[in-house]
Amino acid sequence: MAFFQHDGQRIAYEIHGSGPCTAVLLPGLLFSQRMQEPLAEALVARGNRVVTMDPLGHGASDRPRDMWRYSMTGFGAQVIGLLDHLELEQAVLGGASLGANVTLEAAAVAPERVRGMVLEMPVLDNALLGCAIAFTPLMVALTFGEPAMRLVRRAARLVPRGPLPLVPEILLDWVSQEPGPSAAVLQGLFFGRVAPQRDVRRALAAPTLVIGHDRDPVHPFSDADMLVEELPNARLVHASSILELRTRPQRLTAEIGDFLDACWAEPAAAAPRRPSRAARA
User: Which pTM was predicted?
Assistant: First the structure.
């Protein structure tokens, strides 16, 4: 695990493999970069260098309790800060759920730094009601039930990790976090924008692989389908379920690996004109 400083906060990252072709993978909401390590290892086996990162408030990164520190735009700026820290002119960026939206934010801020995007389960217009139903009770529990949630945290930290399957392991990591900072993350995101505006998204010319699935109100397939229609150079892959990439990863890992190969085989797409400050507000 390594760290870099961004706006006075430590951001954690880890480098997997080596080589000139770099991908940056981001986790879902309140999960750590451990969520992306199996995919990182599979992509390294294909000759890529992969960097996994914990946004602020996640994993091993600093976890301040100030809600104003947390926003999608802030997370996107942290990704560009990572590229600056590693002295990378370009990388393929990708992530799941929150990580997909953070990828869009990074591309909106600095499109010339993005070689391609892998967007698994993006959260856009059609997810707003599902997110409100799913995350409002969690935010209330973490905020007003912090003593009880600390007991849950202590119990989770007592569970022996050992050679657990990936899904139980990352869920235990999620429950084992201090509840106060997690509540601040949810509060900051709850009152901020979810993703770049539609006209900004339509200007993102980087090659994009969008992965969507059915039967999930927080990550509706309609959002993935809509995003493919908006982005000028996007392709849609239909996952069988929310867990396919974590429990039966071979098919989707091959799709992502082939996509990375294509991103680096072709000349970089012309960077679109950076949107005005008013458009990004």
Answer: 0.89
Q: Which two tokens stand for residue 118?
A: 């892998």
Helices (H), 119-233: 128-144, 146-158, 166-175, 179-190, 198-201, 221-230
Where in the chain does DSSP place strands (E)? Answer: 2-6, 9-16, 22-26, 49-54, 91-96, 114-120, 208-212, 234-238
CATH number of 2-126+195-268: 3.40.50.1820
Mean pLDDT (whole number) for 28-44:
95
SS3 call for 172: helix
Q: Which two tokens stand for residue 278?
A: 């008013």
Q: CA 81, 87, 90, 95 torsion: positive or negative?
A: negative
Cα separation, 99 vs 119, in Å, equals: 8
Q: Which of 194, 183, 100 is nearest to 138 (CA)?
A: 183
Mean pLDDT, range 159-175, rounded to an integer: 72
Neighbour order of strands in the sheet with 114-120: 2-6, 9-16, 49-54, 22-26, 91-96, 114-120, 208-212, 234-238
Q: Binning pLDDT at 50, 70 and 90, where does residue 270 land? A: low
Q: Are 162 and 43 in contact (CB under 8 A)?
A: no
What DSSP designation does 212 have?
E
Cα distances (angstroms) measured from residue 182 to each of 11, 65, 146 = 16, 8, 10
The overall average pLDDT reported for the chain is: 90
Q: Which two tokens stand for residue 279?
A: 């458009």
Q: What is the pLDDT of residues 69-100, one digit of tens each?
A: 999 999 999 999 999 999 999 999 999 999 99
Other residues' Cβ atoms within 10 Å of the Cβ of residue 102: 27
